[in-house]
Amino acid sequence: MAKKRENIAVGVAHVYATFNNTIVTFTTITGDVIAAASAGSSGFKGARKCTPYAAQVAAEKASAKAMTFGMKIISVKVRGPGAGRESAIRALVAAGLNVTEITDVTGIPHNGCKRRKAKRL
Asked: Could you report the per-residue pLDDT of 61-113, keeping only the tens digit for each?
């Protein structure tokens, strides 16, 4: 049975920006997902998914869903090397959300797995 989520004022916005796509997810502080959107679900296909504009549209779409639950104050966690990192954060601020902190949580290996081979150009 699904819970009715109303009046969640404080939450976390996770921005996952890869080279191929940008995914924006809003969660509660405990980690329950409230709203999510990606560049692909916003109507962008192929090479246009990895553009900053596609990340902006995805962030606007996800923030509109999250604001229906009463979300006003967020902390942003950014992950990945993609092009849509900054534009997604700007879209969250422009949507009217109060951003308290921005944290980069990109995973950095401490000499773990072998790196993938370099792309030839």
From this structure: 999 999 999 999 999 999 999 898 999 999 999 999 999 999 999 999 899 98
- Residue 71's domain spans which residues? 10-104
- Please say whether the beta carbons of 38 and 48 come within 8 A: no
Closest CA to 38 of 11, 2, 51: 51
Domain tally for the chain?
Answer: 1
Note the pLDDT of residue 4: 62
1 pLDDT exceeds 60?
no
User: Helix count (H) and strand count (E) of the chain?
Assistant: 2, 5
| Domain of residue 78, CATH code | 3.30.420.80
Q: In the numeric block, which tokens belong to residue 77? A: 């966690």
2, two tokens: 């699904």
Q: Give the integer Cα–Cα distance in Å for 104 and 84.
A: 14
**47 domain residue, yes or no:** yes
* pTM beyond 0.85: yes
User: For residue 30, is it within any domain?
Assistant: yes
Q: Is residue 119 part of a domain?
A: no
